Amino acid sequence: MTVLITGATGNLGTQLLRTHPNCLHPTHNELDVTDEEAVSQYVKNAKIEEVIHSAALTGITRCEEDRERAYLTNVLGTRNLARAVAQYHPDCLFVYISTASVFYGDRGPYSESDIPYPRNFYSLTKLLGEFVVTESALKKQLVIRTNFVGRKKWPYPKAFTDRYATYLFADDLASATRNVMDQGLRGLVHVYGKEKLSMFELAKMTTPEVKPMVMSEYSGPPVPVDMSLRSNRIPPFELTRSKNQ
């Protein structure tokens, strides 16, 4: 089974390489998803049976400040890849990694049947990317909504005690993604952890010295407060608290 993984240098992408050691994982220079012609030629010449599209511009503030780049990458880039795969590899499974933050985030948990309502431009582009995939000519498609972080030092000195999600670490999500693919699931699926945790509780697992903060201290683009998920289709996955677990 030949798998193409985009975004292979990101938190999830690096873990997907571990679960798919013989995959194609082009660099940005080798495959710029925003370049429609380059994408078409790459996909045409590649022998692929599955695609996991995890490449995206993810920084919420960055997406607000450069909406053109965010739209080009997250929406049109997804469209370019989906179109090329549908054209040259019609039997290929296309997996799109989306986000729990497509929801407004004032309550939770959200299921696949709940109505999305993005609160910021990043989340909007990810939701539009979902529509690109589901409305494309792809025969086999899987949209995974999730919320994850890399298993590494928390990148900020503080973390919110009153912002929540059903988190997975990136290595947990990589394994869960393969699990869901192997089950033959198609369409929209929420992939999520068993526990609803605050960001602070999650951050403490990798960074014991992280300090607490609350949402009232935050200044920036609007963000969902409760990103917890549930599923009408599959049970939750285990958040592995340590690599030795």
Produce a short descriptive summary.
The protein is of the alpha/beta class and 245 residues long. The chain has a single domain, classed as 3-Layer(aba) Sandwich (Rossmann fold), CATH 3.40.50. The chain is built from seven helices and eleven strands.
Individual helix count: 7
Instruction: From the alpha carbons, calculate the radius of gyration and give it in angstroms.
Output: 17 Å
Distance between the termini: 29 Å
Strand order of the largest sheet: 1-2-3-4-9
Q: What would you call the quaternary organization?
A: single chain
Report the average pLDDT across residues. Answer: 96
Q: What name is given to the CATH topology? A: Rossmann fold
Biggest sheet layout: 5 strands, parallel
Number of domains: 1
Strand content: 15-25%
Query: Would you identify the regions where 5 or more consecutive residues have pLDDT less than 50?
Result: none
Proportion of residues in helical segments = 25-40%
CATH class: Alpha Beta
Report the CATH superfamily. Answer: NAD(P)-binding Rossmann-like Domain
Dominant shape: globular
Count of extended strands? 11
Query: What would you say the CATH architecture is?
Result: 3-Layer(aba) Sandwich
The helix-strand sequence is: EHHEHHEHEEEEEHEEHE
- What class do helices, strands and sheet pairing give? alpha/beta
